[in-house]
Each structure stands twice: as structure tokens, then as C-alpha cells.
Model the fold of this input.
Amino acid sequence: MKIVIFASGSGSNAENIIHHFEGSEITVAGIFCNVEGAGVIERANRLGVSCVLFNREEWKTGNRVDALLASYSPDLIVLAGFLWLFPQRLLDQFPHVINIHPALLPKFGGKGMFGMHVHEAVVAARETETGITVHWVTEKYDDGAPIFQGRCPISPDDDAHAVADKIHELEMAHFPSVVEEVLKDIQPKS
Ligand code: GAR
Done:
């Protein structure tokens, strides 16, 4: 089965997923990235995974990007640090799209809630725990049905960076196996 990952940041989750499926029947066929110079591009090159860079115009119109995505024939699309809305036109074509969010949705989700902004909001709200949510993707931000949540405690002296480290650990520990579980329930395309 084939996975395509959409990412725009450092790509630590993308790399972790690629390693997890090495030597298995599941392959990460490609990475789609919308940020020039993003760390994920260097990781993709180093790992020998093809990487497609696209811009906002191509994302809005579907020109080039839709046909390229279809050419990978993905069974599952994984958003790992991808911050643009996933359009309904692509959800109609690819119904299996999941996202990872670095908080316990429905808390701390929505537009503008990504990366350090999330951890800063969590600390400012004096939460005593946070975590990660893997969920199905809809045409709205952080809105689809949850698939998995992992939790960690927050100590009173944790700042946003300490929370980010805990979230990173949770993501590294759980995301690839959640992807694997999701794939078990999907009928292969070919
Ligand atoms: C991850 O922490 C992911 O949860 C977050 O972006 C980071 C990407 O890191 N996603 C969001 O904030 C989505 N709203 P990575 O590029 O190192 O995988």
C-alpha cells in the first residue's frame, strides 16, 4: 500500500514514518511540500523519497498538483505538519486523509493553531496535561473524527519549549503505529 505525506516543516514525523515502514509492504511513495527550503525536503532527498514542491496557486486551482498526486495513487494521505486546508475537491478523490495535531482536540485547534503557537496557548491556559490527536481530515481545520489521542502531564514549571519536547516524544512514539493501524482498515487500491 502507498502513503503520500504532506509536510511543510522540519519533517521529523515524515522521516519517522518512512523509517517505520522500511522493508515492509507499505511504502511512502512521495512527499508533497508547500514551503521552499523546508527541512522535510532535505530529509526526503537524503532518504531517497521523491518530493513535490508546490505553491499556493497550484493548491488553490489544482493545476499540476492534483494530477501529480493522482499519479502516486495513494491509499492513504498523511498530513504531518501541513498547515493549509485540504480542499474538498481532493477529499472527494482521496477519502482517506489523516492529520496529526499537537494538542488534545477539540482543545487548542483551529486556524493559526500550529507548532509553538499551540504549546504557548496550552501553557498560558495553565493546562495540567496536553497531548497529540490523530484525526480524519475534513475541509475544516482540525475538525474530523479523532482516531487516536496520546497524553502527557505538564508540570507547573514547564514552558512552551518543554511542552514541545514532550509532544515531539509522543509523536515519535505513536504516529507511525497509528498510521499502520489506519491502513489495516483501508481496502488497497490495486
Ligand atoms: C508536528 O508537531 C505536528 O503535530 C504539527 O507540526 C509539527 C510538524 O513537525 N502540526 C500542526 O501543528 C498542525 N496544526 P515535523 O515537521 O518535525 O514533523
